[in-house]
Amino acid sequence: MGIHRLNHAVLYVSDLHRSVAFYADVLGFRPVPMTPDGFRGAAFLQAPDSTNDHDLGLFELGAGAGRSAAGRSTVGLYHLAWEVDTLDELAATAERLAAADALVGTSDHGTTKSLYGRDPDGLEFEVVWLVPADRLDDTALAARKRIGRLDLTRERQRYGGQTRGGVGISVPA
User: Fold this and answer.
1) Distance of CA 16 to the CA centre of its chain
2) In angstroms, rounded to a whole number, what is the distance separating the alpha carbons of residues 8 and 24?
3) Per-residue confidence at 3, pLDDT binned at 50, 70, 90?
4) Are 28 and 84 a contacting pair, CB within 8 Å?
5) Phi, psi at residue 25, to the nearest 5°?
6) What is the rounded distance in angstroms from the CA atom of residue 44 to the CA atom of residue 10?
7) Is residue 125 within 8 Å of residue 80, measured between CB atoms?
8) What is the rounded distance in angstroms from the CA atom of residue 25 to the CA atom of residue 69?
9) Are the CB atoms for 146 and 132 separated by under 8 Å?
10) Among candidate residues 73, 70, 95, the one with its CA nearest the CA of residue 84
11) How far apart are CA 65 and CA 110, in angstroms?
């Protein structure tokens, strides 16, 4: 099975309108009118610049739904990672997440520069910029074996804020 990319994710949420607003306002997803007629409690969203039919499906369970215990007391998905095109876009996303009190961490994994967010239901996600293949060096490759503090200012100076990430890795060169 040759996988090209993650096409979409589906999440169970407690409050559909709150979740749609979060993903739209903070991450720029836009609703896609594809909910089947007569079906309530679902929304489908597409990420900015995506060519997918939809990137995120949200299914409402209601206010009585408990928070996910995955990784604490049950098995389950830890997070999904969405890739952005530039470090400038990653920095802008960090600002939006922080303003929404949804930024829970950052990491420098050498070859990837990551933000970690949490949606209104406490579901975690990652937003990542990948070092382009032609910019990978021994330092970046060696740093994959540790989790460092992300310094976006330094990374933008090193790689350029508008340098397209993932070229030659997740995007054809």
Assistant:
1) 19
2) 16
3) confident
4) no
5) -70, -40
6) 9
7) yes
8) 26
9) no
10) 95
11) 38
56-60, 84-88, 169-173: which range is least confident on average? Answer: 169-173
Q: Are 60 and 17 in contact (CB under 8 A)?
A: no
Based on the number of CB atoms within 10 Å of its own CB, is 9 exposed (0-12), middle (13-18) or buried (19 or more)? middle
- Residues 159, 87 contacting (CB under 8 angstroms): yes
Region 95-103: what's the mean pLDDT?
98
Indicate whether this model's pTM tops 0.85: yes
Classify residue 170 as exposed, middle or buried by CB count within 10 Å of its CB (0-12, 13-18, 19+): middle
> How many residues belong to the chain?
173
Cβ(58)–Cβ(19) below 8 Å: yes
Query: How many Cβ atoms sit within 10 Å of the Cβ of residue 132?
Result: 19
Residue 151 CA to its chain's centroid (Å):
19
Tally of helices (H runs) and strands (E runs) in the chain: 4, 8
**Do 63 and 79 contact (CB within 8 A), yes or no?**
no
